Amino acid sequence: MEFPYGKAPFWILVMAIITGSAMMLSRVFTSAGRPDLVFVVFAPRHYDAYLKLIPEFERKHNVKVQLQQVHQRPLQTRLQSALLADTDVPDMVEIMNPFMGAFMKGPLEDVGFVDLTDRIKAEKLDEKMVGSRFSIWSSRGRIFALPHDVHPVALAYRRDIIEQLGIDVNKIETWEDFVRIAHEKIVKDLDGDGIIDRYALDLSISGTSFFPIVLLQRGGAYFDSQGNLTVDSEITIDTIIWYIHQSRGKTRISFPAGEGQPFYKALSDGIILFNFVPDWRSKVFEIDAKDLKGKMALMPLPAWEKGGRRTSTWGGTGLAITEKSKNKELAWELAKFLYLNKQDFSDRFALLNIIPPLKEAWELPAFQIEDAYYSNQKVGQIYAELAQETPPDYVGAYYEMVDGKTREVLVDGGVYYEKYGNDGLREFVTQKLKQKAAYIRKVMNRNVFMRETELQVTDANASKENAG
Amino acid sequence: MKHEKYRAYVKRTPYLFLAPYLCLTCIFFVYPLISAFMLSFQQTNGPKSRAFVGLSNYSFVLTDPDFHKAVTNTAIYAVFSIFLQLPISLGLAMLLNAAKDKTKGFFRLIIFSPNLVGQIFVGVIFSVLFVPRYGLFNRFMQSLIYWGLENRWLENPTLVLPAIIITALWMYVGFNMIYFLAGLQSVDKSLIEAARIDGANPWQVFWNVTLPAIKPVATFVVVMSTIGSFQLFELPFALLKGEFGPSSSGLFIVSYLYSMAFRAGDLGTGAAVGWILTLIIMIISLAQIKLSGTLEEGK
Question: What pTM was computed for the model?
């Protein structure tokens, strides 16, 4: 045999054929062993918990379930891209709030997830679970995921220092009380070097995570239940101004402690005394700031007015079934098995301090246990009581954009406040917020698919009115 | 007859071997390129819904204040890359080139080593260094000039871009230095000697002998730095924890593309941004090459 270009290209060709065939064969073998359900989660602790539960479901139904774990950001982008490109997707996925909105860009029939509304209503889960939690997973009145949690927010505080300062947290009923006490007793330069050594609250000046908490608690929202933009309301303006006052300038009561080690150092050093802590974060504190065991305690959020709501919400996970799944009924069974499993509620609470949305679960003994970390308070009971008044948080396709733009107003308003004080601050914030809202509406109106849906809805309403 | 067959076989063979490469290029480069071009005139929502929107995506991007902000931030970053990063790289390269002892290799490794770790890693590290009160960078500034302990580098809109530039400086100075060092080592020593004998001072030697000699390398580094600056994405993304900084102060053109295509799910607008970015890079790179006169010299 002759090799006009030498033997090397021939062997490259041979290797290409062998590796190509091996890849094809491996694909054939893999597809032969494909499980009945592929379930992707992003939280490592959920993964561990489900890994223990799934064998029982597999035995019961004589099926095979493959559990995968992917970080939430790539999970969202990969799933979004896979749904857009119509390629292979898992049967079930756990999605983190507020990323569900990104999948709701088009008409309802184009959403890549199964509409669970009728199934949820048939099982009366909308009554058995905290109603507001369905808001995160809904679009235009239809529900596309089963809520995993409630995530009510409390304030976790340094009980040891607060008691030393003679503060009675039971007397802090409103944010007005909180700010007054912070100024009177907490915010201090302890060593006289001109640098404040103790602040009341952890607040980022860009409003990341914290701004939506206070906005929702106050009754504000980025969207309403029908997906209409509601961010440019008086409540948002008032909340932005309040947030600026507490996080900027010389009279601020907060310190931006950040996250990770710097945050826990600030907490341990007593630089910040109060923190927004939803149920899941209360366990993170226990794990990451062990030395504060017995020195911490929980209290409801101060209300915006006397007798008002004492909680908010931060985060959330939901389980969605993809439209492309070939085993939708089996997937729904698994979803119920995992999300309505009483034993798992207890284990989950012991492991993560997470309050399930199913109200009857709150009576379980696991939720009545005293927690030594939080000065022997019954953490489960505290969060369960707050869970009932958790506000709804409607998401939409443009949620991240709205959150970003609102926080831009917060930052610009903060810069303005540091320069000019309160003079003209309200007008400045109002004008900026209106500008941003107009921009978002312009972007939303560019979405030809949503426009078509709205037109259909409008047409349907017009027909009904005509018929009436 | 047999001979002719053999000749035809030999003639075909190179194309057969080229075929895998050409196939892959067509699948992974030519097809996406054409597809992205078509996509830039459409709005999509999954495989079922596609709508032709003409130049709407382009007109939206070109009039979008966020895009203007992204272009401004990218341009500022690119200017600092060229006028701050590259002179420092050149200075370090000259110092190392002049050094004669054995520590030369050691310092070369030390200065280059930040580039051995990825942008994500560097972003994560610097996000901790820039923490108010506890961040090493803040503490260093406080002990050096009694300023900066409470600086919120990544939360203050006026400090975000400087923070990104400082991080990039640490990361890329060593990388560009290696190119300059290679260029300097190829400069004809006899020319420098001759200039010195003729009475040229160090600055004159640098300006009239060294710099013209390393001009092709310098042009290459400037063009590559500019392209790299316009493609900046991972470093600010990691530094700002997946956000674009307060008031979009850390928004760059590729971040804007990412946010449009993958966060807002608007692939058409993302594709339009991609084509606008390609055009910007092409124009600037050609202008740089033209201004430096490298092409003419090569003829």
Answer: 0.84
